[in-house]
Amino acid sequence: MHSDDAARGKRHRVLIIGGGFGGLSAARALAKTPVEVTLVDRRNHHLFQPLLYQVATAGLSAPSIAAPLRFILREQANAFVYMDEALEIDRERKTVRFAHGVREYDTLVVATGAGHAYFGHDEWAKDAPGLKTLEDAFHIRRRILLAFENAERETDPAKRQAWLNFVIVGGGATGVELAGTLAEIARHTLPREFRNSEPRDANIMLVEAGPRVLPAFAEDLSEKARKQLVKLGVDVRTGGAVTAIDAHGVDLGDQHIAARTVLWAAGVAASPLGALLGAPVDRAGRVQVLGDLSIPGDPDVFVIGDLASVNSDGKPVPGVAPAAKQMGAYVGSVIRARIEDQAAPAPFRYRDDGSLATIGRMAAVAQFGKVKLSGVLAWWVWLIAHVYFLIGFRNRLVVLMDWASSYWTYQRHARIVQGDIGRDDPPR
Amino acid sequence: MHSDDAARGKRHRVLIIGGGFGGLSAARALAKTPVEVTLVDRRNHHLFQPLLYQVATAGLSAPSIAAPLRFILREQANAFVYMDEALEIDRERKTVRFAHGVREYDTLVVATGAGHAYFGHDEWAKDAPGLKTLEDAFHIRRRILLAFENAERETDPAKRQAWLNFVIVGGGATGVELAGTLAEIARHTLPREFRNSEPRDANIMLVEAGPRVLPAFAEDLSEKARKQLVKLGVDVRTGGAVTAIDAHGVDLGDQHIAARTVLWAAGVAASPLGALLGAPVDRAGRVQVLGDLSIPGDPDVFVIGDLASVNSDGKPVPGVAPAAKQMGAYVGSVIRARIEDQAAPAPFRYRDDGSLATIGRMAAVAQFGKVKLSGVLAWWVWLIAHVYFLIGFRNRLVVLMDWASSYWTYQRHARIVQGDIGRDDPPR
Fold this sequence. Notes:
- Chains A, B: It catalyses: a quinone + NADH + H(+) = a quinol + NAD(+).
- Two copies of one chain form a homodimer.
- Among the domains of chain A are: about 5-40 and about 85-115 and about 270-340, FAD/NAD(P)-binding domain (3-Layer(bba) Sandwich); about 120-265, FAD/NAD(P)-binding domain, CATH 3.50.50.
- Chain A contains twelve helices and 27 strands.
- Chain A has helices at about 5-10, 20-30, 50-55, 70, 135-155, 155-165, 175-190, 220-230, 275, 320-340, 375-390, 395-410; strands at about 10-15, 35-40, 45, 65-70, 80-85, 85-90, 95-100, 100-105, 105-110, 115, 165-170, 205-210, 235-240, 240-245, 250, 255-260, 260-265, 270, 285-290, 295, 300-305, 310, 310, 315, 355-360, 365-370, 370-375.
- In chain A, the strands form nine sheets. Chain A has a six-stranded mixed beta sheet with strand order 5-2-1-9-21-20, covered by helices on one side. Chain A has a four-stranded parallel beta sheet with strand order 13-12-11-17. Chain A has a three-stranded antiparallel beta sheet with strand order 6-7-8, with no helix packed on it.
- At the A-B interface, strand 4, strand 5, helix 5 and helix 12 of A face strand 4, strand 5, helix 5 and helix 12 of B.
């Protein structure tokens, strides 16, 4: 057994907080640099967030889209992985206080991402859960599956229908994916299994305050996505914001919509760790970093991924997985240049490799520069891209198998409600 | 939409509480009998408990060994499935009060199984979790994986070793399976991934109060199992009971064993619903039923599976899955005979199809009457039997694939700790 100190020697210490796309890619970029890389995350796994909605909708099991961080980095001899929670950053002493001890750094990379934002209505959180972590996905899965169970047990028609009404708030990629998949579950997966209630009676409503769904895409693709959603049976409502949410439904303008299941896909707020850095933050709490992704006045502290606010070619870099990966790799190159006394790389530039969003069975939209795709072809591109970027051969194979089986049988294999129904469940 | 009443008509109502092997098999046995079958479970899924230890040790994901009850019974037109929790049984009024309403029955089948028993030491439960439900499996998985994470973070050698010491209490099939698998994880799965600690330093201790492990098997097979465990690196201690358990270890006779992870596989206690029936129960809380599995004085109430205490050929029927299945099928035939005014079947007889227990890689023991197997051959029989009885083609395929990949790579794909590490975790 060798101690921390012996293994560490006198190498430059790079401390990375967060094992998402940004943090992991920074760690990997430093594999061949003579530094000691320490990656700390509150969780033991890296999560392939683009497929998290599939766990929430019972299509995939959690281990298919998550892998232990120390497994991913097992061959990287200069990498140490710890499971711990960062509580405080002391930039003067160059230390981070974690729940289980203090760690020193020479260079710090903060990559703790973002959570949900309820635009000043944090009281909505309990009735409109969002989707960022595996636990969120299990919670949403439980809510969706229990809604159909409750409808089956309910004898009052109006109350039953309220269990069959689903409102998804937010028309970005996650909202669109959840709505399309829910419609498929209600129409195709569940019908034969219920005796008193009719899953096909479910109403899936997608609410977007802006004028169109998938606002990050070109207008004609937004329109195509809307049409594909409507074809799947989704009630798409754009141009009006939700003004109230409680356990029994939402208010949308003058209208009250009775719905016992409301899902939140509308806003993100940067991780609270950003504010602890003492650097300037934007309205969403993201840290405004310099062109080399370090914070103003402290070249030894970098912020990357969804927690960073930076422009590239005059436009804000979007909070997406490819941007986080690129930032991680870039920061790795900046650190390497410093260690090797090379010239600093040019400021970070985001390379837009295109955008993809899936809607449902063989329905998706894709945009690569001027090339726009929709429908079946876009869906195949989406599928291949997502399977390709999954970590691990086993996961690729199982995900492909699950999708194939799901496609032919309309079944979803992960329809497991964790835990008892309990006496107070549903709690209201 | 049709109401409960319309669908029900005037058919004889069979209410089954519990969707384990017993309850599910009773429901299926009544598929072609003109009765209304209502199956109620607190959970939405049937669980293949014989492989639960694989979920606890990160080898399989939950959906591989669990399937929604209503999916399993979807083609059975006379079966209704509800997710609810039974609170009270009124045998005079022939009603059961559930958390979400009261249901009437003409015939009641109680099949709620068993939980953990700590022999009067319920305070041990928090430090020595048992394995009965998916939540138990996730909790144990979390404890095991966090133990290695904590060892990696710990700098004090004695404290580190305490994180690497594992005590499994109880030398039955579950204890043997957990011990063998843990030894494999420590020796083969994890070693390359840790930098400060050495997973191979883990001590896996299996404690059995009786004179031998796997007491349900013949003596020579117990001895073979012990040898196979020792070969895997398990420290097997028989003939001495644990006298104290807390968060820092166990007392075994005069010896204190420092271990931060203690798992309980020693005793089961019948579901509390048995006591609510007002029928005679044995020391373990199991309901003493008559030869036709009904309770004394009430031919309309049956108790089956682990909750039932009954003799067959002068010997107590063991609390195993095949016995529960046979009881379910038998009670189905009793009810059918009554409905069809046929003579009552002969009293229940347990048909012992043999016993199987796996120990580790290619190591198992099997006993079929006078035929005894051990080692590789027993392991193949175990594998084929377990895959065969899994529900669903997809599960069979994925489980086989996971085992094959686990076998060649020593990896375990479900190494996901659910939830944050948290500030107070480990809490002591």
